[in-house]
């Protein structure tokens, strides 16, 4: 797998996610023809250039939750991700889960 091209494909798809909607890592991987590459989707987002305006916060795990990250990754801090999604109208329950039936985006 050519990671640079894969990352660009991830970024192009994430850029299309509408405000107030989310996609999962696995869903993105499957749509890009790499159904076992969910973790690589996470790596792609982790490696976004600083200052990027890509809506990285709109990618969550298959349980409808924000995935924990390494302590050095302050740009993608889970609390920030939740705040950004809540600002888009997404509601989380007490377990930190959002309703995928309501918010999951399925591109054409």
TrEMBL record:
The keyword Disulfide bond does not apply. Gene3D superfamilies: Winged helix-like DNA-binding domain superfamily/Winged helix DNA-binding domain (1.10.10.10). InterPro entries: ATL_DNA_repair (IPR052520), MethylDNA_cys_MeTrfase_DNA-bd (IPR014048), MethylDNA_cys_MeTrfase_DNAb (IPR036217), WH-like_DNA-bd_sf (IPR036388). One of its GO terms (biological process) is DNA repair. The keyword Electron transport does not apply. One of its GO terms (molecular function) is methyltransferase activity. Keywords: DNA damage, Methyltransferase, Transferase. Residues 5-90 form the Methylated-DNA-[protein]-cysteine S-methyltransferase DNA binding domain. It comes from the Bacteria. This is 6-O-methylguanine DNA methyltransferase, DNA binding domain. It comes from Candidatus Moduliflexus flocculans.
């Amino acid at each position: 797998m050519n990671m640079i091209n894969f990352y660009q494909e991830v970024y192009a798809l994430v850029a299309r996610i509408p405000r107030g909607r989310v996609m999962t890592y696995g869903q993105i991987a499957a749509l890009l023809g790499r159904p076992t590459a969910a973790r690589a989707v996470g790596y792609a987002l982790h490696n976004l250039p600083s200052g990027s305006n890509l809506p990285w916060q709109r990618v969550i795990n298959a349980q409808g939750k924000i995935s924990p990250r390494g302590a050095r990754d302050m740009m993608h801090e889970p609390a920030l991700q939740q705040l950004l999604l809540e600002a888009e109208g997404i509601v989380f329950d007490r377990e930190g889960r959002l309703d995928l039936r309501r918010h999951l985006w399925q591109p054409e």
